[in-house]
Write a structure and sequence with these properties.
Oligomer: homodimer
Distance between the termini of chain A: 35 Å
Structural class of chain A: alpha+beta
Number of helices of chain A: 5
CATH class of chain A: Mainly Alpha
Low-confidence stretches of chain A: 108-113
CATH superfamily of chain A: Winged helix-like DNA-binding domain superfamily/Winged helix DNA-binding domain
Largest sheet of chain A: 3 strands, antiparallel
Shape of chain A: globular
Chain lengths: 113, 113
DNA sequence: CAAATATACATTAGATTCTTATGTATTGGA
DNA sequence: TCCAATACATAAGAATCTAATGTATATTTG
């Protein structure tokens, strides 16, 4: 099963921040592969969504970058800035809270009316 | 805590379909109030998001409507069509599956690298 | 009883974020 | 040698939401 795209909306930044929290530094392509692998192909990040998102997080001072060359091919590593570490924690716990709310909302039987 | 808007994106239709699955029929304003109440004000649906979404679901044959007058004030009740009942089940189980995936993705320690 | 609040529908401009497509270039394997 | 994988990036258009606005009735409160 590949989730309908609308479901994933709004979760991309949280996913990025979580991976960078656990891995210190990662590059874009690596993130797509890691997510694909961890979710058994259920979530496949597209480049058109990922790169603009990474650029936005960098512009907000949440991520910092280092560019390295692997042979002649460029690779851009992203890391959490100090600010980013806080934002990361906040985003993840906000999402955890949101999931609890949604779990409750979707499990309950509200046959009151 | 009120969730950042991006988190809620993409969950609106699932919420609507779940409420209508449990309640047979509801009207727009009622849906906003019920969600607000059930989530202790954490999720507050806006009319600008809700009504277009209801109209779209109706246009897709997922919801049917009945209009009633309460005094002089109009009230538009929405119900799941037979097709809507299937879509409802699918959406909810897809979301449940998605939540499991996200839970795994956000809880794990991936300090492999 | 007047005014404020709540109920109840709806639309729209603009913002955000995603999809899909396209572009460039290097590297590795069949 | 050619195809797939690696690795970056952008851009047009679609989808969906926010915030504002509009209309009207009903109820509560000072």
């Amino acid at each position: 099963m590949i989730y309908s795209s609308e479901l994933i909306k709004g979760t991309l930044k949280t996913i990025i921040l979580k991976l960078l929290k656990d891995n210190k530094r990662m590059y874009g392509y690596e993130i797509t592969q890691r997510v694909k692998e961890l979710t058994h192909d259920r979530i496949q990040l597209t480049e058109g969504a990922l790169y603009p998102s990474l650029h936005a997080l960098e512009a907000d001072g949440i991520l910092t970058t280092e560019t390295e060359y692997i042979g002649k091919r460029v690779r851009k590593y992203y890391s959490l800035s100090p600010k980013g570490k806080n934002v990361s924690k906040e985003k993840i716990s906000e999402f955890a809270d949101f999931m609890n709310t949604m779990k409750f909302l979707l499990d309950i039987k509200t046959d009151i009316a």
